[in-house]
Design a protein that fits this description.
By secondary structure, this protein is mainly alpha-helical. 82% of the residues lie in helices and 0% in strands.
Length: 223
């Protein structure tokens, strides 16, 4: 590579989007896992857990590849720390999705019927948050290929702002679901309550990290 090429390097943003897609694949499998939990199909849950683990591993390899191939000198199209912060948030999303899948396989915890609808609603919203982040990342990549200004930049900022609203909706559903869980404390075992709460916390963490990733996108865009 020439000296100029070594200084400029290749933009890593396209690879960030590849990583974001892989992370979203992990999140995508949460809904069928909840459906398997409701149906008490433990074999199906086990199979899905293996799939999530495999995809998380693939995402992890992509992450390392991105970091190994970042330009080592000065000219990146975005701030290096903010880029790495975005990547870390995405990494945590995949990790939390895998953690959630493992929780479902540790113990055959039956989900109380009073929680079926609320868990499904919450999972759907978490998926919406992750999907909004992925869309924002794709639009950010397209914008980076042209410039970081103009009407297109405002549209990406609007998408990122929508991400915050979607996470807020997820947060509201999480609080509602948490209340519903503890209303069952005299009906189900304390261990069941503990596992419901573990599930809830991992799902909430996915939505929270998606919003954090959006904040890094916003910071990169505004630079």
């Amino acid at each position: 590579m020439t000296i100029i090429g070594d200084l400029l390097g290749n933009s890593p943003i396209g690879h960030l989007v590849d990583h974001a897609r892989k992370v979203h694949e992990c999140v995508e499998l949460i809904k069928p896992m909840i459906e398997g939990l409701i149906a008490e199909d433990w074999d199906w849950i086990e199979e899905l857990q293996h799939r999530v683990s495999k995809i998380e591993y693939e995402a992890d390899k992509l992450k390392h590849d991105i970091r190994d191939h970042l330009p080592r000198r000065y000219f990146l199209p975005v701030n290096r720390e903010e880029l790495d912060g975005f990547l870390q948030c995405q990494e945590k999303m995949a990790d939390y999705a895998e953690d959630f899948s493992v929780i479902l396989t540790i113990r055959k915890t039956r989900l109380h019927e009073d929680l079926h609808e609320q868990f499904m609603e919450f999972v759907t919203q978490v998926f919406q948050v992750s999907g909004t982040l992925l869309t924002a990342a794709v639009e950010f990549k397209n914008l980076a290929e042209v410039s970081f200004s103009g009407a297109e930049a405002r549209l990406v900022l609007e998408r990122i702002n929508n991400l915050g609203e979607e996470e807020w909706k997820a947060d509201k559903l999480a609080r509602k679901l948490s209340i519903a869980i503890y209303e069952l404390e005299n009906t189900v075992s304390p261990i069941d309550i503990m596992f419901y709460e573990k599930m809830l916390l991992k799902l909430s963490a996915i939505a929270n990290e998606a919003e954090n990733a959006g904040d890094y996108l916003r910071a990169m865009l505004r630079k």
